[in-house]
Amino acid sequence: MPSPEQIAKNHWYRNDDLPGVSGPEREIIGYGERPPRIRWDGGAKVAINIVVNYEEGSEKTFAMGDHMNDGMYELPFNVDDQRDLAKESMYEYGSRAGVWRLLRIFDRCQVPATFFAAAVALERNPEVARKLNERGDEVVGHGYRWIDHYEYSREEEKALINLAMDSFQKTLGRQPSGWYCREMSVNTRELLVEDGRFLYDSDYYGDDLPHWTFINGKSHLIVPYSLVTNDCRYIMGTGFAAASDFVEMASRTLDQLLDDGDDCGRMMSIGLHPRITGNPARANGLAEFIRYAQSKKDAVFMRRDAIARKFIEQVPRPATPADRPNR
User: Which domain holds residue 136?
Assistant: First the structure.
């Protein structure tokens, strides 16, 4: 047996989190066995949210002075110490062709979408901003640029959030009510709550339903996201080799949520990138899944802000942590 002194030097024996650690508290238990019985628009059991991560033109590049080339593209190698024109052009495919292919599918299928948009990406392609306004799509703040927020100080991150919101006001004539940055910091959620302009954030992957949390005594809504039914799996790690893989994963996800062993409604996130799913074969798979989902009477496509508001109607904002459901 290790001595008390030996144990005190290690952390492997702990069964709780250290006090005073920066950032939000971990919430392990969640809703437990009995989540709230949620129903969405038209009484549907599953709300499907299509998310387009619109980042092209805001990623890290030598051309923008970042002294590096960003990742998440088709080829598994990098060019160091200079511009990678091949990689840059793959990003440009998303803004030149891919985003418009996705929007044509959404128009044809008459489905709403949520755009996780980096502000600079919309600044550099104002026609996309115009189209989103024309369609009435939701824009969620995806940062001023597509950069990791954990790399910045609290003051710098606050400035980045304000820069992004000012930019959205100029390009869209409106500001987002939701936020999802590339990689949040331990300060992100506190800054959003302090700011006061945000209905929710989506920097969370731990549930199939929105939930209330508390930040410095104030209730705050989390609308979770997913990297499972997400097209990053075409190009990262073990994932989708073909469009049929995406269709099967998305269809099976929907089937399970529609009959998940209880009477609780849930949400489903579909994550897309114009430079990835905007390519023809993958876009064809997306259209196939949308048609499949539209054949299900208990599924409905909704914007993320609409999901947030529909949830709040049924699970009102709690005044104290003790007022949260099933906590």
Answer: 41-67+81-323
